[in-house]
Amino acid sequence: MIEVLVADDQAAVRAGLVLILGAAPDVRVVGEAADGERAVELARELRPDVVLMDVRMPRLDGISATRQIAAFADVLVLTTFDLDEYVFGALRAGAAGFLLKDVDADRLVEAVRTVAAGNGIIAPQVTRRLIGAFAARPEPVPPDPAAVAELTPREREVLGCLGEGLSNGEIAARLSMAETTTKTHVSRILAKLGLRSRVQAAILAQELAASGLPGPPGDGAAPDAPGPGRGGLSAG
Fold it and tell me: Domain HTH luxR-type: where (predicted)?
């Protein structure tokens, strides 16, 4: 069952979202918040799988709330406003997805499932602008080997899987561990590397693979290190 927290300052909109999500057999709404501060409080208390987040809210805006929540729950931003400052701001804050409120009910439910499975989703209307912004950005600074060296061998395996775009369930299957354990590893990776979302972790993993950074000392001797033929971030 996917547990969802709905955050929107308009009661009628919240009621509609709860109705749509509640009709799905695999989704359960565990809480509602009318402002950003309450959304953060409830997210910390309830630990939902997905937080459906509006952008314009009193007390604390949705992007600032996302920045606080993204470290321990996936955030799907849902807004009326197709503005670059909201799109880029939400993704930089760690949101796993960005949709507009004109999305139909079926697509909204499917988006929640997608985010809960550990994947990202972006409204088609803004995808081209994101591609353009990505293409125009300067070359990334090579990642710091010291930060990566703090990861355990298992965390490096999980990071490598994130770089391949695998969901939590797919990572769990590949590495023969529980999906809840996968979520724990992802959270620790984000904390150690100072990242806000699995999307940022995936980008870093790809940059690490491209730069061929060596693994941490003792990589091969650790009990949970990748075996021969297993994916990872070691050079070679």
Answer: 144-209
Question: For the chain, what percent of residues have pLDDT higher than 90?
Answer: 38
The residue ranges of DSSP E strands in the chain, in sequence order, are: 2-7, 27-33, 50-53, 74-79, 97-100, 121-122
Main-chain dihedrals φ then ψ at residue 104, nearest 5 degrees: -80, 165
Q: What is the pTM of this model?
A: 0.63
Tokens of 22: 């509640």
pLDDT at 153 over 80: yes
What is the distance between the alpha carbons of residues 96 and 76, in angstroms, rounded to a whole number? 6
Q: What pLDDT is attached to residue 134?
A: 55
CB-CB neighbours of 143 under 10 Å? 17
